[in-house]
Design a protein that fits this description.
single chain, 7 helices, 2 domains, TRM61_C, seven-stranded mixed beta sheet, alpha/beta, four-stranded antiparallel beta sheet, methyltransferase, about 250 residues, S-adenosyl-L-methionine, tRNA processing
Length: about 250
């Protein structure tokens, strides 16, 4: 549960206790979203349900997670939806896997680092998707033979993504999508070349850039603070050819 008062936010389990500058807050075991609870000093906090954008701020991090704008592009360009199956590599914090799981997607995600994988499993519990996201410890490239054309979406955020892309035809169901995220353009190019070699269609690469706008008495302009660029996304689709044109 997210417990909020103004700019103060705490992520608490029902029955947990949190010390704040406004007093000690005890969350009842049977608390529901929308409930107003008070600290021992009588200061009120509102209990809210954890929503998608809150994941980025409150999941335990093991590295730099994918930004919400990047995840939005993955969802928008692939149309992944409830009932789909996704294979993911490079779990990290697990923000992408959690977002997909909250959409109703059945996710199998691989993380090489055992400690990172344990953290990601805890994050899936926090996000409420432990039942739909399977976090596995290991290297996806070593288990490719375990899968057979059963996924609607293949998402990769690893240095060896091109090695997996080469097997996309064996992993994706007909019409399935590939999405590769990379912070470096050289890696994106390698993923594109691998996608071409694998015979994938509709290959495109996007750089994700976002600028905040500042509005004040002097005028309006893009903010000079923050970083607009996050990375590159390579998209492709598996379109098997059945027969030949008549």
């Amino acid at each position: 549960m997210l417990v909020v008062r103004g700019s103060r936010e705490f992520l608490l389990e029902p029955g947990a206790t949190q010390e704040t500058d406004l007093g000690v807050l005890e969350l009842p075991e049977d608390v529901e979203p929308g409930t107003v609870v008070e600290t021992h000093l009588g200061e009120a906090f509102e209990v809210r349900r954890l929503r998608g954008p809150d994941l980025f701020d409150h999941l335990e991090r093991t590295g730099a997670p994918m930004m919400p704008r990047d995840i939005g592009l993955v969802v928008g360009h692939t149309g992944v939806a409830a009932g789909d199956r996704a294979l993911d590599a490079g779990t990290g914090t697990g923000v992408l896997a959690a977002y997909l799981g909250r959409l109703g997607v059945e996710v199998t995600t691989y993380e090489r680092d055992p400690e990172f994988a344990d953290t990601a499993r805890g994050n899936m519990e926090t996000a409420g998707v432990a039942g739909t996201v399977d976090v596995r410890t290991g290297d996806l490239t070593e288990t490719l033979d375990d899968f057979a054309a059963e996924f609607d979406l293949l998402t990769l955020d690893t240095e060896d993504a091109p090695a997996v892309v080469e097997h996309a035809e064996e992993l994706l169901a007909p019409g399935g999508f590939l999405a590769v995220y990379s912070p470096f353009v050289e890696s994106a190019r390698e993923a594109v070349e691998a996608a071409r070699g694998a015979g994938l269609a509709d290959i495109e690469t996007l750089e994700t850039i976002q600028r905040r706008m500042d509005f004040d008495d002097r005028g309006s302009r893009p903010s000079t603070a923050g970083v607009g660029h996050t990375g590159y996304l390579v998209f492709a689709r598996f379109r098997p050819q059945f027969g030949s044109p008549s």
